[in-house]
Amino acid sequence: MPTKKPESSATPEAKASIQVIERMMKLLDVLAQHADPVPLKQLALETGLHPSTAHRILGAMTHSGFVERADAGIYRLGIRLLELGSIVKSRISLRETAMPFMLKLHAATGESVNLGVRAGDEIVYVERTSSGRSSVRVVHIVGARAPLHTTATGKLFLVEAGLERIREYARRTALPASTPASITTLPALEKELDRVRRHGVAFDLDEVETGVRCIAAGIRDDDRALIAGLSLSTPSERFNPDWAPLVKETADEISRALGYLAPRAA
Fold first, then answer.
1. Of 54-68, 137-151, 200-214, where does the model show the most confidence?
2. 134 pLDDT exceeds 60?
3. Rounded distance, CA 147 to CA 202, Å?
4. E-assigned strands of 93-241?
5. 226 and 197 in contact (C-beta within 8 Å)?
6. Which helix or strand (DSSP H or E) is residue 102 part of?
């Protein structure tokens, strides 16, 4: 009995439509990489498309507002993308976006993962996954507050603020201690923040609560602004500084989910 040949999962028309969509995305990606309008010839070269094919697709995208034709044969991204981007941004919730990544980090480490934002001279913790592995009390519960200079997340925000505002913060708060390990002098704080600046992660070593240590990395939005810190908190006896790259990687994933694009290398 002859074997029946499997039917194609997509019709030729469907395959052609998918190919057009893929080509549109290629063109958008190339346009997004250039600050200035891009000539048709260059777009064709960078996407690998024939100039006539690129011209035809760009024409349709121009008609729909996704691309603008600045001059003859010169193209740039269109205002329709800005409109859609604004809609997407308005519907993104930091806490909802971060939680799946926080749960993944929690599963990988078995430790508490916190999401903190700046509120004046303090960090406020707005979301948390609990480890349930220790009776050691961890201050990083939802709604808890702690000074910027004692928390790993707070140090990230101080670095972002710049040297003059760091000094203003020190004068304004007098750098009160929460534990014997807390930083209480401006020279020590500046030295600590220089390490944070160089490594892109911050540590809290028993500085908020004795017996609790944290690693934090920054979360940025589509405007590249620092909007939150992701921190991993553990009892001191289980603290593992080798988790720092994983915390940084997770924070970067949340940033990308919020629309952050890292600056292109020079």
1. 200-214
2. no
3. 14
4. 112-119, 122-129, 145-147, 202-205, 212-220, 226-235
5. no
6. helix 94-109
Query: For helices 94-109 and 244-257, what crossing angle results, to 10°?
Result: 150
Going by the DSSP 8-state scheme, the letter that residue 142 receives in this structure is T
**Domains of the chain and any CATH numbers:** 12-86 (1.10.10.10), 92-257 (3.30.450.40)
pLDDT digits (tens, 9 = 90+) for 99-113: 999 999 999 999 999
Which residue's structure tokens are 């995208």? Answer: 61
Q: Are 152 and 179 in contact (CB under 8 A)?
A: no
Six token digits for residue 205: 């070593």
> What's the full length of the chain, in residues?
266
- How far apart are the C-alpha atoms of 248 and 252, rounded to whole Å? 6
Instruction: Check if the beta carbon of residue 212 is closer than 8 Å to that of residue 84.
Output: no
Backbone angles phi, psi at 145, to 5 degrees: -125, 150
Q: What span, in angstroms and rounded, lies between the C-alpha atoms of 115 and 150?
A: 16
Residue 257 has pLDDT above 90, yes or no: yes
Q: Is 170 left (phi over 0), alpha (psi -120 to 50) or beta?
A: alpha
Q: Helix 152-161 crosses helix 163-173 at what angle (to 10 degrees)?
A: 120
Residues 185, 258: contact at Cβ < 8 Å?
no
CA separation, residue 105 to residues 27, 100, 206, 213 (Å): 35, 9, 21, 16
- The torsion angles phi and psi of 113, rounded to 5 degrees, stand at -120, 130
pLDDT at residue 138 greater than cutoff 50: no
Rounded to 5 degrees, φ, ψ at 230 are -100, 125
Most confident of 30-34, 56-60, 85-89, 188-192: 188-192
Phi-psi region for residue 203, left (φ > 0), alpha (ψ -120 to 50) or beta?
beta
- What pLDDT does 266 receive? 52
